[in-house]
Amino acid sequence: MMRRQRCAIYTRQSSEPSHRETSCKAQFDTCLKFIASMKPIGLELTGTRYDDAGYGGATLDRPALRELIQSVRTGCVDIVVVEYLDRLSRSVFDVLTLMESFRDHGVDLRIVTCPDLTISPSDNFMINPLASYLGVKLSN
Fold it and tell me: Which of 2, 50, 104, 138 is 20 to 30 Å apart from 13, CA to CA?
């Protein structure tokens, strides 16, 4: 029997968006298509949107991110879906802290642009340099 997995999409658009493709709506649509493509294996969207429009990635003090973290802690989410890893944070430390919290609560992270990369202990080796690269190479 297929296990239903509740997915929460998190989007963040910086305070100074440079492209329409970075909008929360565009990110949400991309993540929604990803979830729809995984429906045969049990992925489905939760009813709550977690959009932080107008917030930079230098801090974790964002309203929708706080709400998402609370949903993770209370067991309302099985998988967090983001289009890019840097949508969670521009800080390597913060990304790893969030991922550790997700793991502690049995929540997986799916990065649409890196669908095979998860939060398993073996993938941490790849996530550290990836998060570092994203934090250095991309602007808010």
Answer: 104
Q: What is the CATH number of the domain that holds 36?
A: 3.40.50.1390
At 130, is the secondary structure helix, strand, or coil? helix
**Angle (CA) 54 57 63, round 5°:** 55
Longest dimension (CA), the chain: 46
Q: Which residues pair with 53 in a beta bridge?
A: 13
Q: Please give the helix or strand (H or E) that residue 30 lies within, else none.
A: helix 24-37
- Give pLDDT tens digits for 28-48: 999 999 999 999 999 999 989
Domain hosting residue 71, numbered range: 5-137
pLDDT at 2 over 80: no
Alpha-carbon distance of 139 to 69, in angstroms, equals 24
The CA-atom distances, in angstroms, between 90 and each of 86, 99, 134, 135, 139 are: 5, 13, 7, 5, 9
Q: What's the structural domain count of the chain?
A: 1
